[in-house]
Amino acid sequence: QVQLVESGGGLVQAGGSLRLSCAASGSTNEINAMGWYRQAPGKHRELVAGITSGAVTDYGDFVKGRFTISRDNAKNTVYLQMNSLKPEDTAVYYCHARTVVLRTTIIKTDYWGQGTQVTVYS
Known about the structure:
mainly beta, 11 strands, 4-stranded antiparallel sheet, 7-stranded mixed sheet
């Protein structure tokens, strides 16, 4: 089991910045990838950014160089630096972690944080 605790959301004016943090605990040695998703009212949850244990990153198309994901493996923490925020970035941001365990087969399990609200006003 993995527990995820997010922090850093809030209210910010358009053009401003926020930094989200997500600390993992529990079976952190099994974590392969971590990342951030977001969900706005009436919309599907979408990938914002992801990072593997080998520091390979992936971003949603809408990020366009504005956000940076990073990971501190020693602290089991992933960060999302968000710059040049826009009102359309308003959403609940969820931390995600995927564990990969080899038993008789490969078992992948997804974990989610409780979500943190990001509101960008113009």
